[in-house]
Amino acid sequence: MRATVLYDTHYGNTRTIAEVIAGELGSGTTATPVTGFFPGALEGIDVLVIGSPIVGWNSTEPIQAFLAGLTPGSLDGMRAAAFDTRVKHFLHGDAAGKISHALQRAGATIVAHPQGFLVTGSRGPLAADARRKATAWAAFIGSELRATA
Ligand SMILES: Cc1cc2nc3c(=O)[nH]c(=O)nc-3n(C[C@H](O)[C@H](O)[C@H](O)COP(=O)(O)O)c2cc1C
User: Which residues belong to the signal peptide in this entry (predicted)?
Assistant: First the structure.
């Protein structure tokens, strides 16, 4: 199984979560910045996890641009999941849900509910339990992948 955790980040918090998830998913998984990554680079990848900071209730522009480049059916046969990092606020928005819908529209099978991980301020750091929650979320994805292999 080849998996990619594609992410964008301004201050490093989303990269940290992406690396935790990639580490939990195990060998064959890379955490890759979205900058310079194009849909054609998905050739040979079975599992795609996408993560973004929430910026203005949505994912970042590079993540949105990547998703806009996915044509319907281009992710047929791909298993996928999405996460975001966010501040604790009742109006934080839901980038992970929007990413997840875009992946599904492109044909991917979503293997885990979209997940948000908290930062304690715009620049971070991550909330104390964010790494543990990311590990648990990735472990769930791993178990789903094994169950449906
Ligand atoms: C311009 C800007 C807009 C933001 N908008 C939101 C928002 O709408 N909802 C939210 O929960 N967090 C918002 N945040 C906080 C980011 O989600 C936080 O900076 C991010 O999780 C940090 O991740 P990073 O270190 O990977 O960039 C915003 C931050 C910035 C700088």
Answer: none
